[in-house]
């Protein structure tokens, strides 16, 4: 099965992205920078945050992209159902075709997932399925693994659990601190997230069960 975003050809308009984030937005910046290249087959239509003063919104504005704050409601780790529909409506109004989570600190529930089937992706700072959840670089360091990394994956109802699109490995050094390890993971994230978006936009990704197959020709 070919993943939902339609194949890109030279005649096809750029894939419209909606980026969701709650924090610094360095991955969003990498996506914005990639989209600024004329040959890149995607564009950011809107950046949405649940945090009003998040730096990710500032990054969007600086890039000339619409920045939207939608307050999350009363829950701490998810959006209220009505708010979830506000997010969906905002993304649909802007004809978003692929939703990219970039440090969005809330779990998306079925109402959101159903609105964008197979069209939500996330970046996670570990080699999944190892170390899902929060602060994965600390988990990796505390566990004592010698290699960790990052993963771009489709989002499903599980936590950091959907089919894996791309991964990059990062060695754990003996003198690593959580900060130094996170920094090197971030560098790889900024490389593979735009690459995964490019592959999706160009229709080079298909899903067979849990396996995502990348056609690189
Ligand atoms: C990244 O480490 C990403 O893997 C995780 O959240 C962090 C977001 O960082 N999902 P940034 O806001 O993109 O700098």
- CATH class type: Alpha Beta
Unreliable segments of 5+ consecutive residues? none
Instruction: Give the full name of the CATH homologous superfamily.
Output: Formyl transferase, N-terminal domain
CATH topology heading: Rossmann fold
Main sheet summary: 7 strands, mixed
The domain count comes to 1
Radius of gyration: 17 Å
Named once each, the bound ligands are:
5-O-phosphono-beta-D-ribofuranosylamine
Q: What is the overall silhouette?
A: globular
Mean pLDDT equals 94
Helix content: 25-40%
Question: What is the correct CATH architecture?
Answer: 3-Layer(aba) Sandwich
Helix and strand succession? Answer: EHEHEHEHEHEEHEE
Strand content: 15-25%
Please give the count of helices. 6
Lateral strand order in the biggest sheet: 3-2-1-4-5-6-7
Strand count: 9
Class inferred from helices and paired strands: alpha/beta
Distance between the termini: 18 Å
């Amino acid at each position: 099965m070919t993943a939902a975003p339609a194949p890109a050809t030279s005649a096809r308009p750029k894939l419209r992205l909606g980026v969701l984030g709650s924090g610094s937005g360095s991955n969003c910046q990498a996506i914005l920078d990639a989209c600024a290249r004329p040959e890149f087959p995607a564009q950011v239509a809107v950046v949405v945050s649940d945090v009003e003063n998040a730096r990710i919104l500032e990054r969007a504005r600086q890039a000339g992209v619409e920045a939207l704050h939608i307050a999350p409601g009363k829950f701490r780790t998810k959006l209220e159902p009505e708010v979830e529909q506000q997010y969906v409506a905002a993304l649909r109004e802007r004809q978003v075709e692929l939703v990219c989570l970039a440090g969005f600190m809330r779990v998306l529930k079925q109402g959101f997932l159903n609105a964008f089937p197979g069209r939500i992706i996330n970046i996670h700072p570990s080699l999944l399925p190892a170390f899902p959840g929060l602060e994965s670089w600390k988990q990796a360091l505390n566990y004592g693994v010698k290699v960790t990394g990052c993963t771009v994956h489709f989002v499903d109802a599980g936590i950091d659990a959907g089919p894996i699109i791309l991964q990059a490995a990062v060695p754990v050094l003996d003198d690593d601190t959580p900060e130094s390890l996170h920094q090197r993971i971030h560098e790889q994230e900024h490389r593979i997230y735009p690459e995964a978006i490019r592959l999706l936009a160009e229709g080079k990704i298909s899903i067979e069960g849990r396996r995502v197959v990348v056609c690189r020709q």
